[in-house]
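Could you show me just one protein sequence together with its fold in token form as a worked example?
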Amino acid sequence: MLTHTLTEMVVLSFLSIAILPYIPFQIFLAQPTLASPAPRPFNFMNLTYEHFLPQRGQNGTIGEELKCYSLPFGGIGFASHILTYWTVAFLFAERKPLPPFSKLRHSTWDIWIAIISLVICAPIAGFTIFRCIVRWQFVLITVWKTTMSLTLAVVGLHRSLRLRKPKNYNGKAEPSKGIYAWLVLYGLGTIVGLVGLFSLVSQTIRSNAKVRIITIVFGTVTFAICVLVICTIVLMILDEDESKAYAAGWGIGLLPVVLVLGVGILAAFYSDWILGAIASNNWTGAPSGNNTWLYWAYFAAKRLPLLSF
């Protein structure tokens, strides 16, 4: 079992790496438009800096530089993250993410939509990283959101491959705990992304009242959840019921995992609204300019695992 699990993870990891060569094609096949009506002699460096890298604006503000960011944020990003967590939860449970929520059975279909989602999302994220290279915080946040897309896709792939394995005497596939290892990928991405996000917050929290309000709200909610979980476990330990004390022991062991997952989920929501506040109060996160097609292509591709059945 361990050998099969490790083999699956290695294969999926190589598949994730295999899509990286598509990133240069996305960059060089893009068709830029000249900012000036006057014709200019062709210069590759000028072409690169003027059309692939973002315009910094008159004062090079963070809000202006955010135009390079081609991934969902704000209200749309918030909805996207809810759908992502919903999909991952049902894939872990081997259930269809859409009604009637029955058991997953069509592994071939699920494998293909996971691969298509991965092949589309990764190059768009790579293109966004290239465009946002002038502001390292956006690069780290993009890496974070990319690990989320990768986690969603590889969880779908892993689960689909498990469905292809021989069944036991009950006619069911052997349970696989290795699939949960992919959460480590998202956890590492979250750490990287929060470094960039907190840097942005530190630069804007004094001058942007909305950033302050969002930070206070999410900080309070996170602290309250942590206190509630810890108090619940303590009360269960003090209870005379042995079953509750036993459950509390498990709770203590799982507490770090629960807290990390909870913080990771809230951090994604927090980043959506922080970017919305920074982007000239673009609370919906609606795209504009040349980013529109990248934005919606990424959004649609990331939703493909929702069609698993």
